[in-house]
Design a protein that fits this description.
It is a single chain. Helices cover 5% and strands 58% of the residues. It contains 5 helices and 36 strands. The strands form 6 sheets. It has a 22-stranded antiparallel β-barrel.
Length: 634
Amino acid sequence: MFVLALMLLMAPQAQDTLSASQVSSERYDSPAVRTVSSGQISAMPSATVTDVLRHTAGVQIRDYGGLGGLKTVNVRSLGSQHTGVFIDGVKVSNVQNGQVDLGRYSSEDLASVSVFNGQSSFLLQSASELASSSVVCLRTAFPDFGEPWSLDAKAEYGSFTSGSGYLSFRKRMSRKFYMKVTGDCRHTEGDYPFTYTNRSGADTTARRQNSDLTSFHLEPSLYMLSGNSALHLKGYWYHSDRGLPGPVIRRSGQYRSGDRQRDGNVFLQGNYRYVSGRFSMKVLGKYSYDRCNYLQDTAGNVAVRYLDLHYRQHEGYMSAAAAYRSGGFGLSLAWDNTVSSLDSDVPGLSGKFRWTSLLAVKARYVHEALSADVSLVYNHSEDTYIHDRLSPFLSLQYSPGNFRFLIFWKNSFRLPTFNELYYVAVPSANAAHNLRPETVDQFDFTASYSASAGPWSCGCRADLFYNITRDKIIWLPAANQFVWSAFNYGLVHGYGCTLSVDNGLSLRDFRLDVRLDYSCERSADMTDPQSPWYRGQIAYVPLHSVSAVLAAEYRGWALSTCFLYNSVRYRNSANTAANLMDPYYALDVMLSRKLLDFMKVSLSVTNVTDSQYEIISRYPMPGISYRIVLQVDI
């Protein structure tokens, strides 16, 4: 990448005359959306995608082991499989387990991170976006065609022998074409200390082992702007080698694991958009190849058997959407097709295949301060079984002055993953469970207010929600702890509220931003009225969550703090004292200084109070850690 950057810098510059171009972008005209801008992301002490989402009301992050562990996201406890993650409008998917590891995606090149419940009011959407129960949108930064070239570089070093490097080079090729190449590498030993209770009941300090991570990422992009058309082509390569430290078994003192996981991911995607007057359209396409090598080694735990398994996924995706507006009325059509396959060397299992076709129609009507949105998604899926489902959505919004009121209902579902269908205890190795899809009904009422006066701006939002999840898929151990069975045996009612407040003050040399988020959620297991745990809180859902982010800037200096608190949770729906997990809080602080117009150095301290806590039971999180960052923008 460095050699390529030098060659392009030394190349003669084309003497092009830049013509004006019209660029269209999504505008989420709905109070159900929370968007964090690139400026807010860079001001956070630990600006990863998961850290950004962690401080959003109603969003839960599951972190399996801190630095190198799997990190998944779900909104309002619907499950990570119900949360669609989209990068530049194209969905990130995993047909094997339905979970997206957000730990592999860098936040350095992001223009914004948006989270919305139910559905955005934007008319031109893919059928996959309309079908998702909730959506996380990651938007990469669009280049400035007025700049001949630019270069961003970042290097950091921190606790637990952690280091990373990032480089982004952007160059205008002609008046219509722009190229961008970004890449990063990361390494951490992850050997942080933690405290656990041993078999004698005494607190013992140990050091996390086999928690290292090494990863590489390269992402070239090509942009084209021509009149009313825009094209974005992106390539992506990712490789990682990580240790899986495993759970800490307190009574036996077992906290070592020799398990390892190697991941590789390559994809090529394109996004074409055309806007002309009342008509707009977009076409999306993607091909991806994922490989995963899971090694279960007996070196760290003699109680397990040796396994060396390989999984390979291929996926092709095509989407076309068109929208037309006339006065206050708008109509859109979208059609998505996805073909997925999974091969493995698991004994007795052959390759698996799935084809999914989504057809969606959406109508929007706006009259003065009142707007209404209606959509219907038809889902046809074929693998071992054939599934046909309809998913409706309805919302009404009233926006008098600075206020907005929104009410919506959405029905959605998610198909069982290949893990749930095949990689479980079944009568025959190639047989599949006839699992029914999980179905979710979401009800929401949102009220928001925004205003500004001179240097001061304020926005606040309150949500009341009620969710019903039917045919929830659960897992139970079968012959042993390695072989499990999956069943449709679950009914969950979730209800609660979220509150968010944003305040900003901007003076001549001073800028202050304060963001507060609060969530109160009750997710009750309504599966079996005869069970003693009937109406118990489902696993890992805190009743109360509080987040606060403060960022201040003054004459080149910047100070930011992030505070997070989660109340007590339970390991499962058996709400007993033995399954109770303690509440925890974490405080992060960052101080930065601009040395020159193009250089910035920052020092951040994560978990300042050195809190010992767990997000997932028996997976201790790191204590206090330090990080120094040098950033150059040319």
